[in-house]
Amino acid sequence: MSDEHAPRFLIVGAGPAGTSAATTAAALGAQVTLVEDSVVGGAAHLWDCIPSKTMVASSIRMQAIIGAENLGIVPARARVDLARLSERVARISEDLSVKQVALLESQDVEIVRGRGRFTGLHEAVVEIEDGTRRFDFDVALISTGSRPRAPEWAGVDGERILTTRHAYSLDEVPEHMVVVGSGVTGVEMTHIFASLGARVSLLVSRQQVLPHKDPEVAAVLEEDFLERGVQLLKGARAVAIRRDGDEVTVEIQDGRTVRGSHALLAIGAVPNTDGLGLEELGVETDGGFVVVDEFQRTSVPHVYAAGDVTGQMLLSSVATVQGRKLARHALGHPETPMDYTKVAQAIFTEPEIASVGLEEATAAAEGRKVRITKVPFAANPRSLIHGSTRGFAKVISDPAAGVVLGGTIVGHRASELIGILALAVQAKVKTHTLTETLMVHPSLSESLADAAE
Ligand SMILES: Cc1cc2nc3c(=O)[nH]c(=O)nc-3n(C[C@H](O)[C@H](O)[C@H](O)COP(=O)(O)OP(=O)(O)OC[C@H]3O[C@@H](n4cnc5c(N)ncnc54)[C@H](O)[C@@H]3O)c2cc1C
Question: Which residue out of 104, 308, 356 has the highest number of ligand 1 atoms within 8 Å of its CB and is therefore the one to mutate?
């Protein structure tokens, strides 16, 4: 297809959804314009996945040093240099972004720095540094992501009352961090700051951390937190946060209060749709999130949306695949809808928590007959050698066909191990194939073969 006739593909937002759509669309011959008002790579690179996991990497080292004596090593006293850690976080994000820009430019994707807004069915403008630029498009993608929810009652000030976006550039490790919210982000932040030496109180609005996970999964994590001195406040829904000088007070619905040096909110995300011109475009939204069909099409058929802005499984990995698939669909290539039942996901605490496919609670809720087999890592030689025996591997299979339907791993390196089960679920592997696979000995993977038995 010559450039003259190449479809004009306009993408607003260069996070995982936008950049993957850009790469695929460019490879398929579209004329791609990618609009970004912050960093190419998106919040995923700047604020979310990459910085939080860089912090987790340092937390793991710190924990390893603290636990080294159990392995016969007496470490020198370790100290956290938060300034250097923050610098590392920024450098890694920047490096990744630079590489991504180079890749996109090598594919002739035009990157426009500025804020995009739709002004008509086939038209958008971008506020650039010295004015505005107008773009006509045949196909558009809304991939503007989300930002942390920060309601007024919380009084976020970026100094003592924080969202995750403020967590990577603190001058020193907080003396006492009160984490509000015990979903994935809340428990990861608890793990990070507790490992770096802060005293941490975690407000859990229900009766267990990770309210959407199986209780036995949450129990392993709670045990680790309690062992590390984290204060767990259950049934604690925050209603207000006040700052008084160097102190913050979090008020709980039932009248309790918790004092700390800092508070960190981890209570969900809101979509970035303000000022995007979605009304002018006629794109339907629900609670601010853009409504899409199974091919990521909005209510305006030539306008797609993907990633966090759609509110479907807020994960970078999901955004990436959505972007890739919709680009193919939009450009007339055969494509299958997203399959959300096979998404591998992980929570980067220690032990890590990872799952894929069918979960036990879902099977029970659906009254589905399944076979559940489970082994504890305490029985795994490699776990014993490493000194990290907490957790288990669980495999869920179809009792008649013997096919692996899902699995949960709680333990050291669970985020890597889950790849084996993800492949098994995707390829409809039978449990006996997993059992007969000759894994390395001693290795953590052996527990997966055992769990499938
Ligand atoms: C603390 C934290 C940790 C996380 N860790 C993980 C993880 O380990 N693994 C994982 O899979 N997911 C993780 N996530 C989720 C993940 O970050 C998101 O799902 C992912 O970033 C969504 O990608 P996206 O493409 O939708 O948008 P984003 O990454 O949010 O990017 C959207 C981009 O659009 C830009 N933009 C917005 N409006 C406009 C406009 N009008 N004009 C131009 N540009 C605009 C924004 O500046 C932004 O750069 C984490 C989230 C949080 C909060």
Answer: 308
Tokens of 212: 């959407």
pLDDT score for 4 = 60
DSSP, residue by residue, 179-228: EE--SHHHHHHHHHHHHTT-EEEEE-SSSSSSTTS-HHHHHHHHHHHHHT
- Global pTM value: 0.95
As a whole-number percent, the residues of the chain with pLDDT over 70 amount to: 99
Is the alpha carbon torsion for 426, 427, 430, 436 positive or negative? negative
Q: pLDDT tens for residues 397-429?
A: 999 999 999 999 999 999 999 999 999 999 999
Verify whether ligand 1 is closer than 6 Å to residue 181 (CB atom).
no
Closest CA to 67 of 352, 351, 331, 268: 351
Q: pLDDT (tens digit, 9 = 90+) per residue, 27-63? A: 999 999 999 999 999 999 999 999 999 999 999 999 9
Instruction: Please work out whether the CB of residue 319 comes within 6 Å of at least one atom of ligand 1.
Output: yes
As a whole number of angstroms, the distance between CA 369 and CA 405 comes to: 11
Q: What is the pLDDT of residues 318-367, one digit of tens each?
A: 999 999 999 999 999 999 999 999 999 999 999 999 999 999 888 988 99
**What is the enclosing helix (H) or strand (E) of 35?**
strand 31-36
Per the CB < 8 A criterion, the answer to whether 243 and 160 are in contact is: yes
Provide the 3-class DSSP secondary structure of residue 255: coil
Using the structure block, give the residue that is written with the tokens 């937190």.
Answer: 225
pLDDT class of 280 with cuts at 50, 70, 90: confident
Cis peptide leading into residue 351 (ω within 30°): yes
Residues in a beta bridge with 260: 248
260 alpha carbon – ligand 1 mean position (Å): 29
| Contact 51 CB / ligand 1 (< 6 Å) | no
| Å from CA of 416 to ligand 1 middle | 22
In ligand 1, the atom with minimum distance to the C-alpha of 314 is 19
- The response to whether residue 42 sits with its C-beta less than 6 Å from ligand 1 reads yes
Sheet containing strand 161-162, strands side by side: 161-162, 262-265, 176-180, 199-203, 231-233
* pLDDT value at 2 more than 90: no
Distance CA 333, CA 68 (A): 54
Q: Which residue has the tokens 């209060």?
A: 257
Residues in the chain: 453
pLDDT of residue 361: 86
